[in-house]
Design a protein that fits this description.
This is N-formylglutamate deformylase. The chain is an alpha/beta fold and about 270 residues long. Helices cover about 30% and strands about 15% of the residues. It contains 7 helices and 7 strands; from the N terminus they run ββαααβαββαβαβα. A 7-stranded mixed beta sheet has the order 1-3-2-4-7-5-6. It starts with a strand and ends with a helix.
């Protein structure tokens, strides 16, 4: 199984890369055999179908990189040295997590991957994705003089382990307005607000490790994270893709990306 898949643009390339780090579902058998099958057969923390939802973006000239491995093998949006992203009491899953977002144990028989196993997974699965993403960003910057990384995510409407209230429908993260230029942030907010979806900026998510590590606007490498509720494009069970819901949110996403393509001309 390849670590990632690159989906090339179908038209003239633009300086935007969409990253989909959490839609992968593959788990090597040596790892899956140690997991609680009730959880590993459902993979509830997966960003289901996000790669499908954003599939239209290649028609706009955008390149997409999507991970093939499950985040329960290794989490590509966590610091490989396990430095926490938040310190507000929420459940914080590690780069190699042993629980889901609600604290349920992923592994059976109290198995915990040791430091050697964590390092192995980081080397095999985490590092190649980040190296390829960096390569794509650097190549695009060399071609256009600038580049925007758009990190695409989704989450259940309700995850009590992280937050007692339901999540807003759309959550834009830019590490407290440090990972992208003010103009790009403003253009994104303008595109997402007042479209029939509850919108929030940097709360309760302000961007994970990918956004924070790659976003360097002073070097003309900008990064934004968009977290969205699965109910935006899935059915009420949050298990199946819903074409009607998906088409509605895709109109907002397309408008957002078109506006960002235009804004990038002036960065």
């Amino acid at each position: 199984m390849e670590i990632f898949k690159i989906i090339e643009p179908k038209t003239s390339k633009v300086p935007i890369i969409i990253s989909v780090p959490h839609a992968g579902t593959f788990i090597p058998e040596d790892i899956k055999s140690k997991m609680n099958s009730e959880l590993s057969d459902k993979l509830d923390d997966t960003d289901w179908f996000i790669d499908k939802l954003y599939g239209f973006a290649t028609d706009l000239g955008i390149t997409i990189i999507t991970a093939n491995y499950s985040r329960w093998v290794v989490d590509l949006n966590r610091n490989p040295e396990n430095q926490p992203l938040y310190n507000d009491g929420r459940v914080i899953t590690d780069v190699v997590t042993v629980t889901d977002f609600n604290g349920n144990q992923i592994y059976k028989d109290n198995y915990i991957p040791d430091s050697q196993e964590v390092a192995r997974r980081v080397e095999l699965f985490h590092k190649p994705y980040h190296e390829k993403l960096d390569e794509l960003l650097q190549q695009t910057k060399a071609e256009f003089g600038k580049v925007l990384l758009f990190d695409a995510h989704s989450i259940r409407k309700s995850v009590p382990g992280i937050r007692s209230e339901d999540f807003p429908d759309l959550i834009l993260g830019d590490n407290d307005e440090t990972s992208a230029s003010p103009e790009l942030i403003e253009a994104t907010i303008d595109s997402l607000q007042n479209k029939g979806y509850e919108f929030s900026h940097n709360h309760p998510f302000k961007g994970g490790y990918i956004t924070r590590s790659f976003g360097k606007p002073e070097e003309n490498i900008h990064a934004l994270q968009l977290e969205m509720c699965k109910t935006n494009y899935m059915d009420t069970s949050e298990m199946s893709y819903d074409e009607t819901n998906a088409e509605r949110i895709q109109l907002v996403l397309k408008e957002t990306l078109v506006n960002l393509i235009e804004q990038m001309k002036f960065i």
